[in-house]
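Entry 14. Structure prediction run on the chain below.
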Amino acid sequence: MPEQTKPIGIDGEGYEGLTRAVLSMMTDFSEIIGRDILFEELGKDSGIAFSSDSGALVMTEKRTITGRVIQTCQYPFLVVYRTASTQESQKLAVQATLDAIGKWLCGEVAVINGKAVQRQGFPALSQGREITRITRMNAYGTEPNPDGVQDWILPATVEYTNTFKPVRAEKEH
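Output returned:
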């Protein structure tokens, strides 16, 4: 099994832009399914939301001969679907919705109510950042609480580059 790459830093300035980009994609998808997908806001027993898992992370960094810095970065996040259903058919529907969200985010074809939909391109970022791809894991259910409310989780990661020329301090004469 390959060794997991660990972050070498954070992209603090990129966090807000990445959060807004994911929110934009979620808003587009919520219009397709007719349900709101919010940022870090779930109802007591239902709702769909997404949340940043660990911020915007710098995974690698290279400097070019001209002094530009090229970083490969990740923005891991979770899509959470909360439901109070105990019926197998409804749990399978939750799983199918999360799978469709994952396909949508990754640019794959998703089938919603018998209609094939596919997101075209990624939202534009600012200041030298560009989304290169989005990956996802399989969705899974957490242990239901005593009231029967259960969260279903879809882990996903935005991979992006951040290219910039660092500001140099002026030399004192």
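The radius of gyration is 19 Å.
Filed with the rest of this week's runs.
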